[in-house]
Amino acid sequence: MKRLFICILMLYGLNVLGFGKINVVTTYGYIADITQRIGGVEVSVSRLAAGSPDPHFITPKPSFIAKLRNADLLIINGGQLEIGWLPPVLLQANNPVINPGRPGFLSLMALVTPLDVHDDVSRAQGDVHPEGNPHIQLDPYHIPVFAQAVMEKLCQLAPGKCEIFRENYTTFEKRWLEKTALWEQKLSPLKGTKVVEYHKLYDYFFHRFKIEVAGTLEPLPGIPPTSRHIAGIIDLIKKQNITVIIQDVYHSSQTARFIAGKTGVKVVIIPHDIGAVKEVTDIFSLFDEIVGRLTGS
Amino acid sequence: MKYKYIIIILGFLLLSYFPHLPASTGQESLSDSRESAATADPFSQKKFLPNISFILDFSYVRRDLDQGFFEALEIPGFIHGHSHHEGHSHAGFNADKGFNLNYGELVLSSAVDPYFDLFTAFHLSESSFEIEEAYIESRSLPYGFRLKLGRFLSGFGRINSQHAHYWDFSDIPLVYRVFFGDHGLLEKGIQLNWVAPTAFYLGLGVECLQGTNENSFGTKNAALTDAGSGEPITLEKVPLPNTWNFFGKTSLDAGDLTLLAGVSYAFGQARLDHFADEENPHGFTGDSSILGVDFTAKYLLGSYTYLALQGEYLYRKMQGTRFLVHEAGIPAAVGIGKVSEEEHQHEEGHEVVGAPMTKKQSGLYVQGVFRFHRQWRLGARWDWLNRNNITLAGTLLNLPGQLNRYSVMVDFSPTEFSRIRLQYNHNGYAFHEEERKKYHEWVLQFNLAIGAHGAHSF
Fold it and tell me: Which run of H or of E encompasses B423?
């Protein structure tokens, strides 16, 4: 019993060693990377969801409770992307500081203009999000907006270190805008072309670069492809001369490959977050990889 | 013609009551929408509606037993057939052959204010509307504490705090059914839980419960009269609240494997009043304690697929006096109950004889679930009541042990909101007139949820 007590005390001590740093927990990897870049050595960041699984369906492991229990700040994607897994662990974490509405909470969805906002929603329409398409991280112009919000939030929590955060933000924003111009240039030949995607996962990216999404393999959001719907998609691909199907890493690419076999269209697997494929290790390489795979370079 | 004037006045009032509706112009300008916003109900509280959801559980059952015969089945030492005691207001799920409307569950939940959350779950059957759970929870206690107050599913064990629609099988594990009933340990009380500030998950909790569970606890003393002396029997008063439960849970991740383990210990007074039973009316008064150990391993194979193994072992010890109604025929071993030394405080009670009794019983279940497709799962479960030792008046009763049930299920979930499950049970635990009666059971279950229903925990 005494030994157990000492053991617990020591583990508690390990946590206390991090004292002075702001303990940030983020739901997804891209938020963790942005936060780390803005916070630098002043923050300790951990993420809950791994990069490869479907971001809608993360298993709410008890280890998440432990992470959230000790957090000073929780940053989420929002737009109900986390609604299927975060609320129970957030409740069980018994940490009022990071609850919605408190200073230790930040949701990024509210910072951008959402696509596909639905006034009237019904579950008969599939897995729709009333606040709009929640996959906001794939518009490169959103990233500095998020970074600025993170900077402001960190400044609010640690006003004494605000200068450092502001400096980090300025450096990051400059480098990001340079890279964005480069990506834009590389993607310009694709402007006006049409693609088919599995789920409405890349809409913000294609919307930004004026690539039209002609259809999705899912008949409705979150509903697996049906043979009738696939027949329609094959028809669409033939009629509109679509040359590429965009596939994510977590759905089976079986359907896309089937359609490719019927139509000769190319299947391109595109990462959606850090860690989705091994080449993507940070927010820069995420977009490098997407642009590279789309342009075939 | 006085009525003419009355009609005219009424007509006038009616016309002036309904405001004049402007003719539609066919197109709405900005000023129109601004005007409608300005005249919208300024006291509307629509945005403050709580989360509302409704769950329906419906099943079709086939069983190779006559319905009346099935209802008379018992599990010797645990559950007797045809029970009509207090608190047993609705039957278990899938009770009838053919169609069953098992339950409707209406859930309302919301934040009350910055300090409290309120959660209510109403359990509806065809003829009853019951509060299953209704509790408030603290939102802002510091240092990792959370307080729960009201009527709730106890944090005992693994499966107890889960609602029925979240179970992996269409019925509760056998060991839970015999120790706590078809709804588990569901009590009024208070729970304080604490999450340790450790790098891994460690949660501890304590509950103080009213302790009215019909199978293992109970608070009401029945009015009893000693059959030998004719004097009323005075039983030790039950402290209210009556039951305590302590539990701890911890978890570790190893790559895609997540392990969760827990220990629970519940204890309190037991007052079982089965005097209204048709056969063998009896009662029990004494102490009861239950130890539970649970273990879960879940291996994630992908976003939508996993392998999960879950098991729980429960051990119950009950010690006290068993009272048998005099007319019911008295076993040779039965002694005489405690005779009242106090004044007559009971009304005319059941004429009984009492004998010291000790129950040491345990059971376990192990289940494996394989979600091999986003919409499909396969599962198998083994229920085993392995220990059934009852000593009555110093004599070990000859009761059957090794009571088993084997179940397999396959379920199909078109979305997270609907589930269709086919389950087969091979039941080898039930007895009819001291003879084991094996039977087969098929359940086709439909479980659907609408509205704003919260996500489930691990």
Answer: strand B418-428
Rounded to the nearest angstrom, the minimum Cα separation between A182 and chain B is 34
Query: What are the distances in angstroms from CA A268 to CA A273, A279, B297, B342?
Result: 16, 15, 35, 87
**Residue A103 DSSP label:** T
> Closest to B253 (Cβ–Cβ): which among A11, A61, A222?
A61
**Has residue A19 got a pLDDT over 70?**
no
**Residues of A engaging B, defined by a Cβ cutoff of 8 Å:** 8, 11-12, 14-15, 52-54, 57, 59-63, 65-66, 69-70, 83-89, 91-96, 99, 101, 123, 126-127, 222-224, 250
Q: For B278-320, how does the pLDDT look when each residue is reduced to its tens digit (9 = 90+)? A: 777 888 999 999 999 999 999 999 999 999 999 999 999 999 9
Tally of CB atoms within 10 A around A258: 16
Domains belonging to chain A, first-starting first, are 19-112+124-180 (3.40.50.1980), 188-295 (3.40.50.1980)
Distance CA B169, CA B162 (A): 12
Percent of chain A with pLDDT over 90: 81
pLDDT in tens, A137-187: 999 999 999 999 999 999 999 999 999 999 999 999 999 999 999 999 999
Q: Can you tell me the ipTM of this complex?
A: 0.85
Q: Are B59 and B446 in contact (CB under 8 A)?
A: yes
- Helix/strand/coil for A150: helix
Place of tokens 């229990």: A69
d(CA A98, CA A45): 14
Strand order across the A105-107 sheet? A43-47, A22-26, A73-76, A105-107
Query: How confident is the model over A221-249, as a mean pLDDT?
Result: 91
Band of the pLDDT at B20, cuts 50, 70, 90? Answer: low
| CATH 1.10.260.40 for domain B49-451 | no
Sheet holding A266-269, edge to edge: A212-216, A194-197, A244-247, A266-269
